[in-house]
Design a protein that fits this description.
Elements: H1 4-14, H2 18-28, H3 38-50, E1 121-122, H4 128-135, E2 196-197, H5 218-225, E3 233-234, E4 246-247, H6 273-280, H7 283-293, H8 319-332, H9 337-343, H10 348-365, H11 369-377, H12 386-404, H13 407-411, H14 431-449, E5 458-466, E6 470-477, E7 480-487, E8 493-495, H15 499-502, H16 520-531, E9 545-546, E10 553-554, E11 557-558, H17 559-565, H18 570-585, H19 599-606, E12 624-625, E13 634-636, E14 649-653, E15 658-662, E16 668-671, E17 675-676, H20 678-684
Parallel strand pairs: 1-2, 9-12
Antiparallel strand pairs: 3-4, 5-6, 6-7, 7-8, 10-11, 13-14, 14-15, 15-16, 16-17
Helix pairs in contact: 1-3, 2-3, 8-10
Length: 696
């Protein structure tokens, strides 16, 4: 009959990997195995086991033994996880001979029985009384794989020669180990047989091993338990060389056990609303919020207002009386508004006429393109126009009062060279803003250059030529009427239209106005816009801008700063608007007026380099070049101490220095070395740091 133990050993070997099988061959000193397949390696190991030094088991009539040829391999049953999954095998965990006997405990056992024939292992109780109770009367069962902890491969194995013989002593002795996990091997006899007891805890446990298995490998057993083998000392009443009752002395070896931290899931702490509220209510936060809220975002840049909602007139008269209501409305348009309240109580006819009289008041005081657009949308004989009339009146008064409270009114010595009609912004909601900005730019050049303009000149009209970019400003003076093309952002003059459209002199004796023709590139740009449809709008002026260092700057503005101001809401939008004005105000002068130059030529001239070879043919493209010195790093409405600047000032940080500029046209009035210029300190009413001294 075939040997069942050998067949089980073959099955165990089949569970191992090729690398583990080769390690066994190396340990067995088997040759010619490196290029063999897994099945051939297993066959070679089995053949070596059959032809090896293992002795056959001899069983007597009083004992039963289980034997097998020594495969000297590491069995997977000694190294399995609690889930019965085989753990990786290491060379130090090779199987050794262990023999267990059954009930009688008397007989001869094979000296090379493998670990696969071991009996069941159970944890040792913590108390001595429990040990004796567990040992007695326990039947031999198949060993469980998860009783012995896996070998960590860190302990060195020591080969100890196996001793053969039979154990006849029936004296049992269990000696407890110390707190450092000592291991004892003693002789134990009981009716239930001898058991291999092992605790599944990695440290501080007692291990009881069958002493009748004289040929068991102590080095492998201790290596599997994580404790090095110690010299064997005899124990008992009688000691002899053939006595198999051996006891390990109390040689305590510290065992390094792995301590794993318990997994702690991440917990997102909820914000404490009380803490946030206290933080927001702190004096620093309150001061900062008050400072930010007190910063003026604009000065003479009047806000754009929206059209109020209009509703039809309620309680209309009969259809026969509505014809009379139109004639009454013309007459009631001359009556003061406070007197119309009494007339609305007379009858439905007078009430209806009083409501529709608002349209005639609008035609008289606010005639223009804006009113014409509203009349196209609403019927003047059916809608209540009083909310729109009140809206236009408040708009005019607000803008006029803002101008009169500004430094520009004081600089003009209380005179307003702006026509009254322009305060109503008749054709465009931005007309008043552009007119005031043009007046500010003219004052800037008067202060900078020293050239005085005609004090009798009156700004009579302003019309938008290119949406959001170019305006035409009409000025009427003693010399006649002239029209200038200006940039909306800075109101810097670009030139004049052709002569027939410029001069309209009532008195032929007056001297002609100096010619300032519009350059060909600007004429082509305006014509391109006027001829283009809304779907094919030409590139804007900012698209015509040329600058250096495109990696860090977008149209001359720092990309990092642009990403920051996007989250500042209304203040960020106001800063970006002022930054674009500064960019257009700092382009090389030849880009706006004067001799036409390309961007490359302007860069060469600005850097002091010789110009390139002149071109035979010049293109009609607008070229705007911004020097690297005027690239914007950041822009602020406060000082370095977070104090608000004058309402008309802003601070621009460039790569070279810091500049004080006017919010409304972006032109410079000071630098960080000298502060605000003295002449502008007098005009603005501020100190050298840009703080408003009049408010303080």
């Amino acid at each position: 009959m075939p040997d069942m133990s050998c067949s089980s050993t073959a099955e165990d070997l089949a569970k191992l990997t090729v690398a583990q099988l080769k390690a066994i061959c190396k340990e067995k000193k088997i040759s010619a195995y490196s290029k063999l397949a897994k099945g051939a390696i297993i066959q070679k190991i089995l053949e070596h086991a059959r032809n090896g030094t293992g002795s056959s088991a001899q069983a007597t009539s009083h004992t039963e033994g289980v034997s097998c040829q020594d495969t000297d391999t590491t069995m997977a049953t000694l190294h399995r996880t609690p889930g019965n999954n085989p753990a990786p095998l290491s060379p130090s965990a090779t199987a050794r001979d262990v023999t267990l006997v059954h009930n009688d405990g008397v007989g001869q056992v094979a000296p090379h029985a493998p670990f696969s024939t071991m009996c069941s292992a159970v944890p040792i109780p913590l108390h001595r009384a429990d040990v004796s109770a567990d040992v007695s009367g326990r039947a031999v069962a198949k060993r469980k794989a998860d009783m012995l902890p896996p070998d960590d491969g860190r302990m060195k194995q020591k080969k100890i020669a196996n001793s053969s013989g039979s154990h006849t002593s029936k004296h049992s002795l269990l000696q407890p180990a110390d707190s450092r996990s000592s291991v004892l091997i003693k002789q134990v006899t009981s009716p239930g047989g001898l058991q291999l007891l092992a605790n599944d805890a990695p440290s501080r446990q007692h291990i009881l091993v069958n002493p009748n298995s004289a040929n068991c490998s102590r080095s492998e057993l201790f290596a599997s338990l994580g404790t090095p083998a110690a010299p064997v000392a005899s124990s008992g009443t009688a000691q002899s060389e053939k006595s198999n009752a051996v006891v390990l002395p109390d040689t305590s070896v510290p065992v390094q056990s792995r301590r794993f931290k318990r997994f702690v899931p991440l917990v997102v702490k909820k914000a404490n609303p009380n803490a946030l509220q206290n933080k927001n209510n702190s004096p620093v936060a309150q001061t900062l919020g008050t400072t930010i809220s007190s910063i003026p975002l604009r000065h003479l840049d009047f806000p754009l207002t929206s059209l109020p909602s209009l509703k039809p007139v309620t309680l209309p008269p009969s259809l026969s009386q509505r014809k009379k209501a139109t004639r009454f409305a013309i007459a009631l348009a001359l009556v003061p508004p406070e007197d119309l309240r009494m007339l609305t109580r007379v009858s439905r006819l007078f009430r209806y006429a009083a409501y529709i009289s608002a349209a005639h008041r609008l035609k008289r005081s606010f005639a223009g393109g804006r009113l014409a657009d509203v009349m196209k949308r609403y019927s003047e004989n059916a809608m209540n126009m009083w909310p729109y009339l009140q809206h236009r009146e408040e708009e005019r008064l607000t803008r006029l009062s803002t101008y009169q409270d500004s430094f520009l009114w004081r600089a003009m010595e209380g005179e307003s060279p702006i026509a009254d009609r322009m305060w109503t912004s008749p054709d465009n909601v931005k007309q008043a803003t552009v007119v005031v900005r043009f007046l500010l730019t003219r004052l800037f050049f008067e202060v900078s250059v020293g050239h005085e303009t005609d004090k009798t000149a009156m700004i009579n009209d302003a019309q938008e030529v290119v949406e959001g970019e170019i305006w035409s400003v009409e000025i009427r003076s003693s010399k006649g009427k002239e029209i200038l093309y200006v940039l909306e952002a800075t109101c810097e003059v670009m030139g004049r239209p052709p002569a027939p459209a410029v001069l309209d002199r009532p008195d032929q004796t007056n001297a002609p106005i100096e010619a300032l023709p519009l350059r060909a590139d600007w004429s082509a740009y305006i014509s391109q816009y006027l001829l283009a449809s809304k779907r094919t709008r030409p590139p804007s002026l900012m698209d015509q801008l040329k600058w250096t260092n495109h990696e860090e700057y977008d149209r001359g503005i720092s990309k990092l700063w642009l990403s920051r101001v996007q989250g500042e809401g209304e203040m960020g939008a106001a800063k970006l608007l002022v930054a674009e004005r500064y960019i257009l105000a700092c382009v090389v002068g030849n880009g706006v007026s004067g001799r036409w130059m390309s961007s490359t030529e302007m860069e060469q001239e600005f850097n002091g380099l010789p110009p390139q070879i002149p071109r035979t043919r010049r293109d009609n493209t607008v070229h705007l070049f911004l020097p690297a010195h005027h690239h914007i790093e950041s822009l602020h409405f406060t000082t370095s101490k977070r104090k608000p600047l004058h309402a008309a000032l802003a601070v621009v940080q460039t790569p070279g220095r810091e500049y004080y500029i006017l919010k409304d046209n972006g032109m410079q009035v000071g630098c960080e070395e000298t502060g605000v210029a003295e002449v502008w300190m007098q005009l603005l009413g501020c100190d050298s740091a840009g703080r408003d001294v009049l408010e303080e």
